[in-house]
Amino acid sequence: MLQNDFEYGESSVRIIPLGGLGEVGMNMMVVETDDDMLVIDCGVQFPEYNTPGIERVIPNMEYVRKHRERVRAVLVTHGHLDHIGGLPHLMRFVDAPIYAPRLAAEMIRRELKKSGGRNMANVQVNSVRLERDYRFGEFNVQWIGVCHSIPDSCSIYLDTPQGGILHSGDFKFDNEPMLGLPTDYQALSEIGQRGVRLLLSDSTNAEDEDLAFGPYRCGRALPSNRRSKRTSDHRQFFDPDRPGSDGRRCRVRAR
């Protein structure tokens, strides 16, 4: 770990990424003061083809373990495994409640139960209400609904001793989601007016300048495809919005 010689002030806020920066998966971040620590997400990363026998990779949680008595809560943005899959490992040594959107909370309970770990049944998992204030030590926290490929996804706003911090979570711009609600732009606008000193934003595929169309827009293009072709067209669509399914096979037959 890198060491430095400067001293923090009494009201300083420190942000420590433990995973998910410069990589896909294993999202985990610590936001802390001298007295209080919040953990945002705790996910897994799925291994590459050249690491056979390894099913999941988890973040290095040693810093949290070392300071576990200061953890006030674990905050979750949404229910994808790269954001919640590491929680069974974290909660083995952290005695703090988990706060998550409703769908994510149910998925977390399932992950904890499936892990079969010691005391997992005693972990307190709370479903949050959007735009309600939650107080954890020196932090005041709000969840704001955003659109993603899974319902009940959220950004998290933290009012800290050093000003507002907005953790975007995973998001996309889609005003016609197949499941769930569009991003709550009004709530984000109000947060912006209150003041955001630091934005921690998802940047997945930010280097791609092409526009990505939502599933509804793609679906509307299929009838024209059907009119323009004389042959059958078999296509595989990945559909993360469909619960209980990794994909959906669509067959388009021209007439």
Structure description:
- The protein is an alpha/beta fold.
- The chain has two domains: 14-200, Ribonuclease Z/Hydroxyacylglutathione hydrolase-like (Metallo-beta-lactamase, Chain A); 215-253, no CATH class.
- Helices cover 20% and strands 26% of the residues.
- The chain contains six helices and 13 strands.
- The chain has helices at residues 62-66, 81-84, 87-90, 102-115, 185-194, 215-228; strands at residues 14-19, 28-32, 37-42, 71-75, 98-100, 125-127, 134-136, 139-146, 153-160, 163-167, 198-200, 232-237, 248-253.
- It has a six-stranded mixed β-sheet. A five-stranded mixed β-sheet has the order 7-8-9-10-11, with helices on one face.
- Strand 2 and strand 3 form a beta hairpin.
Net shape = globular
**Count, helices:** 6
CATH topology of the largest domain: Metallo-beta-lactamase, Chain A
How many strands in all?
13
Strand order of the largest sheet: 1-2-3-4-5-6
**Backbone CA Rg:** 20 Å
- State the separation between the terminal residues, measured CA to CA: 64 Å
Region (Disordered): 223-255
Biased composition (Basic and acidic residues): 230-249
Protein name: Ribonuclease J1
Domain Metallo-beta-lactamase: 25-220
